[in-house]
From TrEMBL:
GO CC, one annotated term: cytoplasm
Protein name: Protein tamozhennic
SUPFAM superfamilies registered for this protein in UniProt: PUG domain-like (SSF143503)
PANTHER family in the record: PROTEIN TAMOZHENNIC, SPERMATOGENESIS-ASSOCIATED PROTEIN 2/TAMOZHENNIC
Amino acid sequence: MESVYDHHYQQDGVGSDEVIGNMYITEPPDVLAKFLAEKESMDQMHPRRPNQKFQLFATEQVLQSSIAKMDNFSADKASTGFEAINRYANNLLRQPCPREYKVLKTHSGFYQHQIVANLAGAEAMFEAMGYRMLPDQTKMVLDGLIFPHRIRDVARDAIVAKAECQMMKMVFDRLTDMELTVNWSDIYSYRELNRLNVEQTVQNMAMLIQEKQHNDLQAYHFELK
């Protein structure tokens, strides 16, 4: 996802490892504790690029697609969608024989109002849990054995995605309060490339936006001559 800010890369402040500690997340303590312990272990075994926030490509894909394809995208709505996925994954983990979770109807109230209304392509995260979409697109089914580690990966990523959306909302609100024009794509692209906390992101993006506005104004006056 290209942006005017893509060529600016910085690494400082709060990154993916500190996102959870800086946000007001209301997930169950046992799930969050497992997330932090497992994330530390996975990071040691499989080093990732510093700015990579998610364990699964599917999560990154869903957030990118939602920003790019949804006309009514907002970080608040996306946060609600990721929270619903996290809650669903946690419930699936807590059920020893989750018969009621074997089939997920895509026309159900839960899926339409909590998932489809807030995220684009979210079926990828359910598929990462082990679900398979039927050809008629009306149901996803959980066949065969359940692999808890796959479900935990999705639950963990959904927490991080929810926190990322909340931080994007903070950046958007701060820049808007400064009467600077910005869109969700620009914020996502900048945060994807720069490991900065909210305050640093706001300061840097504000400087870049003001610089661009100044350059555009100069170019406009030059054309009038």
